[in-house]
Amino acid sequence: MAMHSAIKGKLIAVIGDEDTCVGFLLGGIGEINKNRQPNFFVVDKNTSISEIEETFKKFIRRDDIDIILINQNVAEMIRYVIDTHTTPVPAVLEIPSKDHPYDPAKDSILRRAKGMFTPEEFR
């Protein structure tokens, strides 16, 4: 999968707090496409839920993005939008932030994936 995505030039997008976005940008994932649209969105205390929702929807529609990383506390703000995304690509992965640890019980994608397997399949 990683090699396939690299060949096609697919991106990872990030929606999160400043520390999360800066960390990933320093890791080299930052891109601005030909329409001058970045693949990251910094969320702070002044960011409206509608801005987060619209950015998520834009990332979902972009054909150059295969994975969307989103801080779980930000995902909680737009859970109703994330829950409507059911296609495997782009994959949506919820990640912790510096101030908010990851809680698997809140991750709707993980809950959906668990429903696909029976406990016997994990033995």
TrEMBL record:
Keywords attached to this entry: Hydrogen ion transport, Ion transport, Transport
Top-level taxon: Eukaryota
InterPro entries the UniProt entry points to: ATPase_V1-cplx_f_g_su (IPR008218), ATPase_V1-cplx_fsu_euk (IPR005772), ATPase_V1_fsu_sf (IPR036906)
Coiled coil: none
Keyword rRNA-binding: no
Quaternary assembly: V-ATPase is a heteromultimeric enzyme made up of two complexes: the ATP-hydrolytic V1 complex and the proton translocation V0 complex.
Function: Subunit of the V1 complex of vacuolar(H+)-ATPase (V-ATPase), a multisubunit enzyme composed of a peripheral complex (V1) that hydrolyzes ATP and a membrane integral complex (V0) that translocates protons. V-ATPase is responsible for acidifying and maintaining the pH of intracellular compartments and in some cell types, is targeted to the plasma membrane, where it is responsible for acidifying the extracellular environment.
Family membership: Belongs to the V-ATPase F subunit family.
Name recorded for this polypeptide: V-type proton ATPase subunit F
Organism (species): Orchesella dallaii
Taxonomy of the source species: Eukaryota, Metazoa, Ecdysozoa, Arthropoda, Hexapoda
